[in-house]
Write a structure and sequence with these properties.
Blueprint lengths: L3 E4 L3 H13 L3 E7 L6 H5 L2 E6 L10 H11 L3 E3 L9 H9 L3 E2 L4 H8 L1 H10 L15 H11 L3 E5 L9 E3 L2 H19 L4 E5 L5 E9 L5 E13 L2 E7 L6 H17 L4 E9 L5 E7 L6 H8 L3 H9 L16 E8 L1 E2 L5 E2 L2 E2 L2 E3 L6 E5 L6 E2 L6 E9 L2 H14 L1 E3 L5 H9 L1 H4 L16
Parallel strand pairs: 1-2, 1-4, 2-3, 4-5
Antiparallel strand pairs: 6-7, 6-8, 9-10, 9-12, 10-11, 11-14, 12-13, 14-21, 15-16, 17-20, 18-22, 19-21
The structure holds adenosine-5'-diphosphate.
Adenosine-5'-diphosphate binds next to strand 8, strand 12 and strand 13.
Length: 448
Amino acid sequence: MFRTVLVANRGEIARRIVRGCRALGLRTVAVYSEADRDAPHVKDADHAVLLGPAPARESYLSVERILAAARESGAEAVHPGYGFLSESWRFAEACARAGLTFIGPSAEAIRAMGDKPEARRRMAAAGVPIVPGSPEPVADAASAERVAGGLGYPVILKAAAGGGGIGMAKVASADELAGAFATATRRAQSAFGSGQVYVERYLEAPRHVEVQVFGDTKGTVVHLHDRECSIQRRHQKLVEESPAPNLDARIRRGLTEAAVAGARAIGYVNAGTLEFLVDAQGGFYFLEMNTRLQVEHPVTEEITGLDLVAAQLRVAAGEPLPFTQETIEPRGAAVEVRVYAEDPARNFLPSPGTITRLALPGGEGIRLESGVVEGSVVSVHYDALLFKLIARGADRAQAIERLARALDTCVVEGVKTTLPLLRTITAHADFRRGRVHTQMVEQGAFHG
Ligand code: ADP
């Protein structure tokens, strides 16, 4: 096992990773930008290195500066967290070249799964059902139209290198296609540096259900059950839970078996997630694979009692998985909400500023993962996630009840937050009944 880990991230996830390292007695190195001099993640770590100015390109996204920080601090391994460089196969490769252990899968697995059409091809070859669509990126609007005609409208255009819900466009009919294709190509080019897009059938009001998988270097691959992440806004998750409610046992088994088969087929090592859409008829389709720790990993930890970060460290050090499929026993239910600094009155635009007051709940079954404290400055430069609130219960009703109570006692002043929307969602009858789908927020289910 390595002794010193550099955490190449900020905010709540950097703090979570520091805790995971501590659990194994490892020394931690934080990195930070000039905007984050006083950030909690810097204080948590044993040692901290300034990367550079606030813009992520010059700090958290600078491979060169992060490698230099690792060198000067004596780190032997790097944990990328989520976002930033976590899904950059070039970064994984650069770490290896610099003699550092990258805590995650192989550069090859990251590259293959980061190219969505290739991920779809590889999963289809492993027998995993995929959303019907074009096997390759489409060259122009005319070929997009041919594919769409074959699939039937509506369709959705997606960036081949996409992520974060960016650059997706629903197309209702053939006459909208040329315009949507031009926009999607342009957006994909500016967001991901590649204008390639492909076409998928658009599913009406599907559920988003994903499966946590974990592989080690001995060839073992297990799953850690499913998570429901259907409550989304602009294709970004707001509420996540495990297990997925009201899921037919046959579908649940199908999903976990497909996820393990898919991960096995690509020789996957470390923590990963296969995302699926589930339609009203019970059909399920592979959407994409995230080759990193997810934001929502705590709900899985809460129901399994396992420490996923500690397991990532062990696997990266070449140890076998610290659990087997038989010993992973899910118990009860857990729900997570993401609290962002966004202004609900201004179409959820980021709401930067200083947090002048912060009172966060604790109590039975409540877990908090926060990147901020009172006095923290929420910068325009980074993701606006402030903290995650996670509630566990003997069953789903108890977990939601605890979560709702905890949400009521949260106080955040100085910036606007998504708290009011989250309170509405957790009180909503359909949510409480576990009747959720990915288009609820956009369809206005939680207005008023
Ligand atoms: P990203 O990588 O940008 O997050 P995903 O492919 O994971 O994009 O999709 C994100 C979300 O977009 C899904 O959870 C779902 O809500 C919606 N979505 C994606 N593909 C489809 C589809 N074919 N039909 C309907 N909704 C979709």
